[in-house]
Design a protein that fits this description.
Elements: E1 4-8, E2 16-21, H1 28-32, E3 43-48, H2 64-87, E4 95-100, H3 102-113, E5 120-124, E6 146-152, H4 160-172, E7 176-182, H5 191-200
Parallel strand pairs: 2-3, 2-4, 4-5, 5-6, 6-7
Antiparallel strand pairs: 1-3
Helix pairs in contact: 2-3
Amino acid sequence: MPEIKTAGIPLDQAKKAAILIHGRGANAESILSLSKYLKLDDYALLAPEAEGGSWYPYSFIAPDEANEKALKESLATIKEAWDIIAAVGISSENVVFIGFSQGACLSLEFATQNAQKLGGVIAFTGGLIGETIQEQKYSGDFEGTQIFIGSSEQDFHVPLSRIKESETLLSRMGAKVKLSIFKDSNHTIRQEEIDWVNENIL
């Protein structure tokens, strides 16, 4: 199984936890470095690491069978991190998902397949995974969970149309969704996104 790196407050002392999910070609250390910018001082941090630096081989909107096996394994890895947090008694409304790019897509996918009241979902450039959005995959009620999705208008990897489709479904499932869409085409995390998340979710 892929490794899960930890940082922040020790799990057995924490009241809140964050699962941080890195992007393609990155690793657990790189996503954990976000903690220098995000207000995570009172969180236990868990960062799973994908084997070979990739959670699934193709685009997140590729035909489903292309990514199916890897995606199933990756979602199981996220579930493992989730179970570790649950085992120490931290409740779901005190758990935040944070991901960038591939990790943002995986954060949204896991949270929406298991919708419940969460501490928040922070998706820096991402959308729900699949050639099309198949609503039957998703169940539960977010009960007002705040979900942030930030991206550029013309991101090379994540079409704005998929972000908006994702927003529609998430909202229908009870989430309060904040979209921050920027005019540039940069595949990055912007200071404005960090500021909004720090003020409204963390």
